[in-house]
Amino acid sequence: MELGSVGFIGLGNMGSRMANNLIKNGYKVAVHDINCNVMKMFSDMGVPTKETPFEVAEASDVVITMLPSSSHVLDVYTGPNGVLRCANLMRPQLLIDSSTIDPRTSRKVSVAVSNCILKEKKDHWEKPVMLDAPVSGGVLAAEAGTLTFMVGGSEDAYLAAKPLFLSMGKNAIYCGGAGTGSAAKICNNLAMAVSMLGVSEAFALGQSLGISAGTLTKVLNTSSARCWSSDSYNPVPGVMEGVPASRNYAGGFASKLMAKDLNLAATSVEEAGLQCPLTYQAHEIYTELCRDGHEIEDFSCVFRHYYSGKDEL
């Protein structure tokens, strides 16, 4: 597959950094975003900017999207000026959506893409193909080019796209058919939320029973409860340096984004008809945190604001 020119749509905190890494790695990139300021920033760097998603598609062999929600994704692909506007004569062979959205929407867009026809058939590609490829690692990993991509769709397309993923990240994991990349992301963030709540609850209880968070951290991290929330992203201010808890919960992964991802998980649970009480409880807690004014603080702030945990002096 010829992946010479790349179109990038969605230049927010994540997308702008991912697009930059593609440019650094020698890809010819054209960009689009609804934010004029960020478009100007790219055009000042000499990067071609396009007025609509459709214009990006017309100029690109591959289109990558990084958007805030399912409705944005549907609009960018299937809207009046969307990527798929010229469905019978499409230029891009490969479409990659790195947004965190529900698996159902990923599958819906994938079906729409598979009904399109390529303007020029190259290699053995008869039709354009879609991959859902959300990421883990946040803004710092996007900046450093160390993201992990979770990829759903055709395995051939995944293999063809791997050099692109490894220009923006350090890992790409093939998850299965359409929608499984989105499913993997939702499941990862559900587990991350529940483990953060469990660890925060344990620290708050420990403090009220007279054991300091620093000491309990040593216990957890040499025992069976050890996990990422205890050993790499500790939520108690004063226990660990370099984490959001050490800077008043600034930066990191915003509570409002966690609430959004838990909402996606809750929707998927309902569709699957499963018993998942922790999904609902975690979603409720993070929704409450946001309502109480902590939506832009890192999600580990649940220790302070929900459990009323104390800083380690």
UniProtKB/TrEMBL annotation:
SUPFAM superfamilies xrefs: 6-phosphogluconate dehydrogenase C-terminal domain-like, NAD(P)-binding Rossmann-fold domains
Catalytic activity as recorded in UniProt: 3-hydroxy-2-methylpropanoate + NAD(+) = 2-methyl-3-oxopropanoate + NADH + H(+)
EC primary class: oxidoreductase
Active-site annotation: K185
Subcellular localization: Mitochondrion
Metabolic or biological pathway, per its Swiss-Prot or TrEMBL entry: Amino-acid degradation; L-valine degradation
Pfam families named in the record: NAD_binding_11, NAD_binding_2
UniProt keyword terms in alphabetical order: Branched-chain amino acid catabolism, Mitochondrion, NAD, Oxidoreductase, Transit peptide
A GO CC term attached to the entry: mitochondrion
Subcellular location, principal: mitochondrion
Enzyme Commission code(s) on record: 1.1.1.31
Domain 6-phosphogluconate dehydrogenase NADP-binding stretches: 6-176
Record-level GO BP terms: L-valine catabolic process
PROSITE patterns: 3_HYDROXYISOBUT_DH (PS00895)
GO molecular function term, any single one: NADP binding
Highest taxon of source: Eukaryota
Residues of the 3-hydroxyisobutyrate dehydrogenase-like NAD-binding domain: 179-305
UniProt record similarity statement: Belongs to the HIBADH-related family. 3-hydroxyisobutyrate dehydrogenase subfamily.
Annotated protein name in UniProt: 3-hydroxyisobutyrate dehydrogenase
